[in-house]
Inverse folding.
């Protein structure tokens, strides 16, 4: 039985493309024949809305079938898994109640490992090849939970003048997580929203690749309006328009993730 790989998508800067990357790579992996579970760890519900319309997403948010209920009550996450329309791809939805998660986990025993404990029954069965977790743009106790439950972290970085802002804080945080969860490693920085015509894209890429001990994915995702249309239709772009530029780029990134995780 193969070991389930758990990958967090995290960046403390908002708008970096975490959710878009998590949803599309999750769907791309499923299209490759992998069994994938994605977890919406953000109160904004954007990952959930990547697969369901607003009515369905709000139903999960209100009926307790979501990550908040599971973590607050420290339950086996198996009971909170929901199927998507895509073969091999399941999700644990979120809710706006996640805004209170920091307060809920603070007094708990071994609070940094609650998510790991709730995920363990799923991982032990070995049904999923990959579990992808979408993190909120913070560096608090909940994101520490996510990283402590993960084997790898992928850091999406927007190719913009402010894209690198806060990245040093991100790596400091990861190093602190490693002190209590040594299994975590950085899979790499994933450049998103790239505009090859702009100098700042070239500067961002140059700066990242010159940094020591920082792996940058070979492929990157360019700005593509098709992504916005796919989000408006509650579908990942790899399914909404599978031959679009961004869909192909995300499929290439999914292949990179498989190669890295299985090396």
């Amino acid at each position: 039985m193969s070991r389930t790989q758990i990958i967090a998508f995290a960046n403390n800067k908002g708008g970096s493309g975490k959710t878009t990357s998590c949803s599309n790579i999750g769907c791309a992996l499923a299209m490759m024949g992998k069994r994938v579970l994605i977890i919406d760890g953000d109160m904004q519900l954007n990952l959930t809305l990547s697969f369901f319309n607003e009515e369905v997403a709000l139903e999960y948010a209100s009926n307790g079938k979501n990550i908040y209920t599971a973590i607050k009550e420290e339950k086996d996450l198996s009971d909170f898994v929901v199927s998507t329309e895509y073969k091999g791809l399941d999700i644990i939805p979120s809710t706006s109640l996640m805004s209170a998660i920091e307060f809920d986990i603070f007094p708990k025993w071994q609070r940094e490992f609650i998510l790991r404990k709730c995920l363990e029954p799923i991982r032990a069965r070995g049904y999923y090849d990959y579990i992808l977790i979408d993190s909120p743009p913070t560096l608090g106790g909940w994101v520490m939970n996510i990283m402590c439950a993960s084997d790898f972290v992928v850091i999406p970085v927007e190719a913009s003048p402010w894209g690198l802002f806060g990245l040093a804080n991100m790596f400091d945080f990861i190093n602190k997580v490693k002190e209590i969860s040594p299994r975590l490693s950085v899979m790499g920085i994933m450049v998103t929203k790239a505009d090859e015509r702009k100098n700042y894209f070239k500067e961002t890429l140059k700066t990242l690749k010159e940094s020591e001990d920082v792996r940058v994915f070979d492929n990157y995702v360019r700005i593509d309006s098709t992504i916005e249309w796919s989000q408006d239709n509650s579908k990942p772009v790899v399914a909404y328009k599978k031959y679009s530029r961004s869909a192909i780029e995300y499929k290439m990134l999914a292949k990179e993730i498989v190669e890295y995780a299985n090396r």
User: Anything to note?
Assistant: The first strand starts at residue 5 and ends at 9.
